[in-house]
Amino acid sequence: MIATARLIKKHDKNSRIIFIGPCISKKMEIQKEELVGDVDYVMGFDELQAYIDASDIDVSLCEAKPHDTATKFGRAFACSGGVTEAVKHIIETEGLNIDVKPVVCSGLVECEKALKLAKFGRLNGNFIEGMACEGGCVNGPLTINKKRTNAKCINAYAEASNSKSIEESIEPLEIEKLNLDI
Question: pLDDT tens, 48-63?
């Protein structure tokens, strides 16, 4: 959220950023002193739906403007295991000599267990992907869909991506000049 907001504001300093997603913690994140001003508002999917309903917007009449530069990795990161797949892809495509042994955690119980094992040197891995919500961000508290269908929909959307390479997707963005420090 922060990196994307900073990227947008780098290109348009007058832009107003509204993050729309399933994560309630983003509402607190934008209030952190070092992040204030990066994202102007956070809205949950449930709040967006309420706004659409209250405004009598017929979504079926809205013109779709496809934007297909995201890779399947960018589209699927919000599912449990999605970040791990993106990391593995970068290691492979960059030819990095990194032996990544991921531990994918779905939900707070699994995250806590992995962190305790890591603390005591007993984790069978060297990379923790911790998703607080079971199944990943796609099942965050501000979603509107039934949870068992979310990952299936996201994965189908990811597989439909026309952009297969992370490198070609981020190349025109000049991310090396972007402040990613928090």
Answer: 999 999 999 999 999 8
Q: Residue 163, CB half-sphere, CA atoms under 13 Å: how many?
A: 17
Q: If we measure between CA atoms, which residue out of 126, 86, 83 comes closest to residue 102?
A: 126
**Which residues pair with residue 18 across a beta bridge?**
41
Runs of H (alpha helix) within the chain: 2-11, 25-29, 45-54, 72-76, 82-93, 108-119, 147-159, 166-170
Sign of torsion, CA 42 46 49 51? negative
pLDDT in tens, 8-28: 898 888 999 999 999 999 999
Residues 6+ apart with CB under 8 A from 134: 80, 106, 107, 147
DSSP 25-51: HHHHHTTSTTTBTTBSEEEEHHHHHHH
CA 90 to chain centre: 16
> Which residues are CB-contacts of 119 (< 8 A; sequence separation ≥ 6)?
none
Q: Could you give the CA distance from residue 135 to residue 148 in angstroms, rounded to a whole number?
A: 9
Sign of CA dihedral 6, 10, 13, 14: negative
**Count of all residues that appear for the chain in the document:** 182
